[in-house]
């Protein structure tokens, strides 16, 4: 689904550039001069700016994009002041026309995403049955710490994640990709995993599981309630799936400022069993709410479902 957004944004951006260039050169104008344009092209150009902003945020670090947007805003403002003084009768340039309001909005929007709240689609089934691929989440970036953009290494810590929290963090392999998992162990905890019964043992006590049930009479997918520090969440187990996510005799003590995380879909999750505990500097925020879920349209349901919207536990 996210690739569809990439495709639509890229198509809009390319189409707008082609149409704008065609009209510009057929009217014998220069790239820096304004020209008469129909309203439909004017609106397309504005939408293309938002498309470019979306692609920049998705393909690059949002802090890098924020820095770039602020530099553009300063350049446009200085040029605007220069043009008003030296060319008071000149036509409004295309760049100035685009940037006066739009870049300020983009900067504010990106600041909000970088510092306070962000949104993200769940890309895989690793957190089922708590979260499903296509769920749109709200990420609270101030719950644990406030990072000073664009200096991600500088932050103000408010609190640390607790066992049972669902957190979003940067991938150990690619900082531009986020993972979402549940915290199983915090600093100093001894975490063991028994692959045969698919149970975590934290500080010598197994995380209890009950209410086991198969999701249908002919399915090998089983769900159960699991408890961490008295908090209940649902996990999913695959009776036929062992090899790829098998981790026999896992026994690790979580280092200082690190967290052991795991997916609720116990047999289909790439997590700390494989890449180790996550450092707190990699934490993006806490997954606080589910806005909606994107679905494949059918006669049974709409493209967007709000049936599971609400605060995440």
UniProtKB/TrEMBL annotation:
InterPro entries xref list: LexA/Signal_pep-like_sf, Pept_S26A_signal_pept_1, Pept_S26A_signal_pept_1_CS, Pept_S26A_signal_pept_1_Ser-AS, Peptidase_S26
Reaction equations catalysed: Cleavage of hydrophobic, N-terminal signal or leader sequences from secreted and periplasmic proteins
Keywords: Hydrolase, Membrane, Protease, Transmembrane, Transmembrane helix
GO MF term set: signal peptidase activity
EC number: 3.4.21.89
PROSITE patterns linked: SPASE_I_1, SPASE_I_3
Enzyme kind, highest EC tier: hydrolase
Places the protein is found: Membrane
Protein origin, superkingdom: Bacteria
Domain Peptidase S26: 103-291
Transmembrane stretches, start-end: 6-25, 40-57, 63-82, 103-122
Membrane-protein topology: Multi-pass membrane protein
Keyword Hydrolase part of the UniProt annotation: yes
Broad class of where this protein is predominantly found: membrane
Family indicated by similarity: Belongs to the peptidase S26 family.
UniProt protein name: Signal peptidase I
Gene responsible for this protein: lepB
């Amino acid at each position: 689904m996210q690739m569809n957004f990439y495709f639509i944004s890229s198509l809009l951006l390319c189409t707008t550039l082609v149409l704008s260039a065609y009209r510009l050169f057929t009217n014998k104008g220069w790239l820096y001069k304004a020209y008469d344009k129909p309203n439909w092209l004017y609106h397309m150009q504005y939408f293309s700016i938002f498309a470019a902003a979306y692609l920049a945020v998705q393909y690059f670090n949002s802090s890098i994009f924020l820095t770039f947007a602020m530099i553009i805003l300063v350049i446009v403002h200085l040029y605007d002041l220069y043009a008003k003084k030296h060319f008071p009768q000149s036509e409004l340039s295309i760049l100035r026309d685009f940037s006066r309001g739009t870049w300020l909005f983009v900067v504010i929007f990106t600041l909000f995403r970088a510092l306070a709240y962000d949104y993200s689609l769940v890309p895989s089934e690793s957190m089922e049955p708590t979260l499903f691929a296509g769920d749109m989440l709200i990420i609270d970036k101030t719950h644990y710490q406030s990072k000073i953009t664009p200096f991600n290494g500088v932050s103000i810590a408010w609190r640390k994640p607790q066992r049972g929290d669902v957190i979003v963090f940067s991938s150990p392999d690619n900082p531009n990709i986020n993972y979402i998992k549940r915290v199983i162990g915090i600093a100093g905890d001894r975490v063991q995993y028994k692959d045969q019964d698919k149970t975590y043992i934290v500080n010598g006590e197994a995380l209890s599981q009950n209410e086991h049930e198969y999701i249908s009479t002919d399915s090998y997918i089983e769900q159960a309630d699991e408890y961490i520090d008295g908090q209940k969440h649902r996990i999913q187990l695959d009776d036929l799936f062992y090899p790829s996510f098998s981790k026999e005799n896992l026994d690790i003590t979580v280092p200082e400022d690190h967290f052991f995380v795991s997916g609720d879909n116990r047999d289909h999750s790439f997590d700390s069993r494989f890449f180790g505990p996550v450092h707190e500097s990699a934490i993006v925020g806490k997954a606080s709410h589910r806005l909606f879920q994107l679905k494949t349209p059918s006669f049974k349901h709409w493209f967007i479902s709000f049936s599971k919207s609400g605060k995440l536990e």
